[in-house]
Target: Protein O-mannosyl-transferase 2
Amino acid sequence: WDETHFGKMGSYYINRTFFFDVHPPLGKMLIGLAGYLSGYDGTFPFQKPGDKYEQHNYVGMRGVRLYRLASSWLFCAFLGSCLVPFAYLTVLELSKSLPAALLTAFILIFDTGCITLSQYILLDPILMFFLMGAVLSMVKCNSCADRPFSASWWFWLSLTGVNLAGAMGVKFVGLFVVLLVGLNTIYDLWDLLGNLSLSLVMFGKHLLARVLCLILLPLALYTAMFAVHFTVLNKSGPGDGFFSSAFQSQLIGNNLHNVSVPE
Model:
């Protein structure tokens, strides 16, 4: 059922048709982009679960090899497969135990839920990709604590912020990983504040770096997603009625298009 739901929204992006959904736009935009780049033309109706795709080139949004290896589009399946190395690297960093990391990877490789969720046009593998990416980035950043403000430290801190924006941009449940990273950051800053050998100026730099990478950067990216969303969807569609007359007047094909609407 969900594939019918989100596949249709991918078609909306390809056709630039405005719609309304309870989730933020990033996941559906990425599905639409994968379909567009793999040759899907956005014409399949997605009316009910189980409909045959027939000649429609839907596979780029799911995940199989197309044409040749160089032009493969393994979108949902590719993101789902990334969970295995993400989990492996996270556990290896936390435990420093190769057997523990291998066991984690082995469990995920043969997890029926992950395999099933990753083979359809769903938001779940995209969400899990950003969630686990944020945790891995946070853990790697913590491992660079003895080298603050180094290139690797900035890289992992910034990547954590990017993944936080990605998680929030797919589903609001991504806020839970924001909470996790936030608690880790509070603990880290509290520990630095208690370090008497660290000057207040240096502590201020640590605080500003985290504000920049973990608050301002994710907010900027999250806002940019909606800017792209409203720019791409410029044609009248099923979501018009959720918005004001002034907004509807900007949509091509709407009855109010280019009509002067008083505030």
Confidence is low (pLDDT under 50) at residues 64-73.
